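# nightly structure sweep
# worker-07 picked up a monomer target from the shared queue
# config: single-sequence mode, recycle default, output format = structure tokens
# input follows
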Amino acid sequence: MNHFFLILLLSVLSGVLAALFTFFILYVYIQKFFKKKIEYVIDEYIEIFKNKLRESFQEAGKELLPSFKSEVKKGFKEAIQEVFSPNMIDDTAKQIAKTSSSLIQNSLHLLLGKWTESDKP
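# output follows
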């Protein structure tokens, strides 16, 4: 009976060692011969994917660019019209004229020595 367990143990041990040896041989074989091929195939698929993605983006850009340009132009026109309204330009011109005339008046009063109560600093 003791021999039976010894034979069973040796059989299981030899089976496990054979499986490990086979796995090691396959691993080395795959690393040596198939790894470069697999990397090459993966690199090819990556290039194909990048090219298709680039083409898709370019086509989408060509389709969307005219409408995008028109929307940007429209937005700029609206913004400029809101900022530079005719009333604002007139008000700004009046304010510049008023400030300029006040500056000239004060300079002349300084030169001539004529101060009124409203002109005194």
